[in-house]
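Researcher: Please translate sequence to structure tokens.
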Amino acid sequence: MPRKFAPLLLVLTFMFASLAPAVAAEAPAKRTISVTGTGIAKARPDTAGIAIGVVSEGVTAREALDKNSAAMNRVSVELKGQKVAAKDIQTTNFSVHPKFQHFKDGRPPAIAGYRVVNSVRITVRELKNLGVILDQVVSLGSNQINSISFFLAEPAALEDKAREAAMADARHKAGLYAAAAKAKLGRVLTIAEEFAARPPRPVFARALEAKAAPVPIEPGEHKLQARMHVSWELK
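Model: Translation complete:
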């Protein structure tokens, strides 16, 4: 480039650069509205989780273990007879501990026997069998029922209902605000999801006595909540 054009090019560049902020400042800011919608979907649970266990004691560790294993085997056979799949029976705890006898005359504690604990978590997919299962496992040797919880095996459809309800709630609120401001909703700018699945509430129970009738069980209702943060352009 010839040298005589260099100063002119520099001046023009400076002029355009100085005009750019002014042009940007004159551009009107977009009007937007942002709201949060909430949607709740409910359904009856179709699956239950049970935490049960067998606690056995004996003079020796071997005796306590044999008692425990025999009771747990009876429980396992009954569960499979009630169409509980092997994959739905999971051991969650197994322990062998000595039992100590304490003396008031200052002598050190002495081992007085042993305790074996075997705990399992069971997934019951046929809720109509749940009462019978609880009754039978107690009758066959389970002396610990720690908790029962209810949930949906496939929650995806219920989650979608909660999302749709949340989006509808957000659009309803935004429409009210826009109308109050003498405006209309334009295109959606952003959508952010905040999904809160309410965990199944555990029902705690003490060791139950065997009964002739199945244990009465009420699964209640499962709830899912979705929150949508949505922004619209206003027209």
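Researcher: Any highlights?
Model: Residues 29-44+155-235 form a domain with the Translation Initiation Factor IF3 fold (CATH 3.30.110.170).
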